[in-house]
Specification:
This protein is of the alpha+beta class. The protein has one domain. About 50% of the residues lie in helices and about 20% in strands. The chain contains 4 helices and 6 strands. The chain has a 4-stranded antiparallel beta sheet. A two-stranded antiparallel ribbon has the order 2-3. Helix 1 packs across helix 4. The radius of gyration is 24 Å and the shape is elongated.
């Protein structure tokens, strides 16, 4: 009786080693590839905004469609820090600035309203940050959660975050 129980446990362990771990490894690699793709697309989009000082509804829609092509759903958080130069006063000689500049922050809904109205123009010195995080649970995350449920580890998510300073005034 003891030998048959040991054989069942051995078969169960062999099945895990032969099927579950390779499946988990492949799913993790797929998540890694998707993370790299999301990071690259986000960097390209933010770089385009930083170098031109503007974006359009069409460019934003193309960016969102590229993210969706990975098969996951994402939360896209856009933060723009707009340079407000009013608090900084220049001396009469105009070679020295007294005081510091202040940044005003616009968040996702405010930025999207400006993009939709084709009024999204930035100036040199503004800072744009786009953070992307997946909303759904991938197969790799599900497997990791199943196997690591005992240890209490939380699954990693697919994320990307890029921050750049605008180098040109948007026309």
């Amino acid at each position: 009786m003891g030998d048959s129980a040991m054989a069942v446990v051995a078969i169960f362990m062999a099945a895990i080693l032969m099927f579950v771990f390779p499946l988990m490894t492949m799913a993790d690699r797929k998540d890694d590839v998707v993370t790299l793709e999301i990071q690259t697309e986000t960097e390209n989009y933010v770089k385009e905004i930083a170098t031109t000082g503007k974006t359009t509804q069409n460019a934003y829609d193309n960016y969102i469609q590229t993210l969706a092509a990975t098969g996951n759903a994402y939360d896209v958080d856009i933060t723009v820090q707009v340079l407000d130069e009013n608090p900084a006063k220049k001396e009469t000689s105009a070679t020295k600035t007294i005081g510091e500049n202040v940044y005003l922050t616009l968040h996702t809904t405010q930025v999207l309203e400006q993009i939709q109205s084709n009024n999204f123009r930035l100036k040199e010195g503004d800072i744009i940050t786009i953070t992307v995080k997946n909303k759904n649970e991938t197969i790799g995350m599900q497997l990791r959660n199943f196997l690591y449920r005992v240890t209490g580890n939380n699954s990693a998510t697919i994320t990307a975050s890029v921050t750049k300073m605008v180098t040109t005034n948007g026309q």
